[in-house]
User: Fold Glutamine--fructose-6-phosphate aminotransferase [isomerizing] from Thermococcus indicus.
Amino acid sequence: MCGIIGYIGDRAACEVIVKGLKRLEYRGYDSAGVVTEDKGKLFIKKGAGAIDELTEKLGLLEMPGKRGIGHTRWATHGVPSDVNAHPHTDCTGKIALVHNGIIENFAEIREYLLSRGHAFKSDTDTEVIAHLIEEELKSAPSFEDAMRNALLKLRGSFALGIIYAGEPDRLYFVRNESPLVLGIGDGENFAASDVPAFLEYTNRAIFLDDGEYAVIGKDFYVIKKLATGEVVEKPVQRIEWTLEMAEKSGYPHFMLKEIYEQPRAIKDAIHGNIDAVKRTAKEIARYEKIFIIAMGTSYHAGLVGRYLFQRLAKRVPIVEDASEFRYEFEDLIDEDTLVIAITQSGETADTLAAMKLAKKRGAKVLAIVNVVGSMATRVADMTLYTHAGPEIGVAATKTYTTQLTVLTMLAIELARVLGTADEAYLSSLEDGLQRVPDLVESVLKHDAALRELAESLADRRDFFYIGRGINVPTALEGALKLKEISYIHAEGLSAGELKHGPLALLEEGVPVVAVAPSGKTFDKMMGNVEESRARGAFIIGLGDREELRRVSSAFIEMPGIDELLTPIVYIIPLQLIAYHLAVLRGNDPDKPRNLAKSVTVE
Assistant:
C-alpha cells in the first residue's frame, strides 16, 4: 500500500521525488517523507499528513542534493505520526531507508539490537532494518555486503529504498513480495512502487522479481540476487502508457476519467487478446476441476466468469476469495487442477499467496492481470492482460469491465474448443462483444440524468441492489462501488433472497436498484421488483423492457444485448451513481477513507 520513489541524476532530487510521491497518492497513505544527500550528509523531512501540506509545512522542495528517496506510508506497525513516518535511520544517521511491507520477525530483531546498544526512535517494524544494517556494517567488508547480510535475516514482505551517506554515487532498492520497478533514463535513473511515479522522465522500465535488489547510479544500474549477490540480466520494457494517460485529462477526478475511458479500454482488451485467448483456451481445455480466485471487485468478475464458463463451456468453476482459498482447498489441489487468478495490479498479497500454493501443489495457474511485468505474471504459467492502462482511482472501474471482457472471450473460445455450444451462437456472441464499446458509449450519455437521480437520493442511508443469474455479481459490484466511495450502507444480493430476510429491512423510500435485462430470469425478477415496490421501496430499474419501466420510480433505459454480455454494460450506470453520490456528499472518490488501490499486505 505504501509508495516508494527514488532518484539519482543531475536534477534537484527533491523536486523529482515530490512529483513522484504525488503520482503515488492513489496507493493510499497517512504520512510521507523524503531523504536526500548532499556533500556526504543526509537531509530528512517527514510527517503525518498529505503531501501538499507537508511540502509547504516542511519545505520539501528546499532540500539539497541530487540523489534521494521518498515514501508515502500506510500504517501497519505504529500509529500514523511524524515519528513513525518514513524514512528511518540508524544510530549514526548515515543510513536511511523506506519500506513497503511487513517484517514478521521485527520484535526479536529489535530485542537483539537493543542488547547491542541500539536506540530506537519509532514504533515501526521498518526502523529495525536500518539498525540491523548498521550492526552488520561493523564486520562486513562493504555496505552492500552489510545490507545483504542484514536483509537475509528478515522474514516477511518488503520493498526497500536505501541510501548510505558514505556512498555518494548510488542508491539501493530491494524487492521481496512487494512491488518495485526501475526507471532507466539518460544520465539519471529512478526506482518506484509503480510506473507513473517516473513516467514523466522515462518510459523504459525493469521490473524486479522477489529476492532481487538493484544498485543504481546516474550512469549505471546492476541487478543482483539477494541470496547470492549474483548479477541478474533483465530486459528493459518500454511502457506504452503516456503521462497523460496517468493524469486526469481535465476530469475532476481520476475515477470519472476512468469510467469514461471504458469504451476504449474494452476495445483494447478485445484487440489485445484475440490470439492470446485462442492459445489459452487450448491449454486449459483438459481441466474439469477449476477454481477462480480473486479479491474485491476482481472477485465479482470471477463470479461473472463462473456463469460464463458454466453456460458456454459446461465447466463449473468454484469461485473463492483468494484469502480463504489456501486454507480451505489446499488438499483438493493437484496436477489436474486449473486455478484462474484475477488481480488488476498483479501484486495483491492474498492472490499471490494462493497462486504460489496452487503452483506448489502442481496446478496450472492462469493469471488475468492489468499490469505488465507484475508479480502475478511471473508466478503464473499463463497470463492474459486486460490492457486497461493505468487506473489511478482506488475504486476499480475500467479494470473490472476489461476483466469481464477477457473472461467472456475466454469462455467463448473454450466452448468452441470443447464443442459445448453452437458455433453460430458463439459467433453471434463475438459480434455482440464487438458492439459493447459503442453500447457503453451510449450508456455514458445517461450521465447527466444519473447525476440528477443521485441528487434526489444523496440523503438516503441504505441501498439494496438486486439481480438474478449472471447479474447477481453486477448487483454485488454496484453495492461495493457505493459503499467504498460514498460511505452509504449498501447490500447486493440475489433477488430471490429478498423474501428470505432482507425484505424486513425495506420501508418507504428505501432505494432498490434492480438490474433486470431481458433474459431467462426476467419474469422472476419482475416478481421480486413488485414485492419490493409493495413495501414502499424506491425502484431504480436498469433494463430494456417496458414492463420494468412501468413499475420503476426511476428507469434507466439500457441497450438490448445478449444476456451473457450485460454485466459489462449494466455496471456503467452503477459506477456513475456511486461516483455522483460520493461527490455530492463531499467525498473524494479517488481516495476513499481506509482503502488503498493495491493490497500488498495480507
Remarks:
- The mean pLDDT is 93.
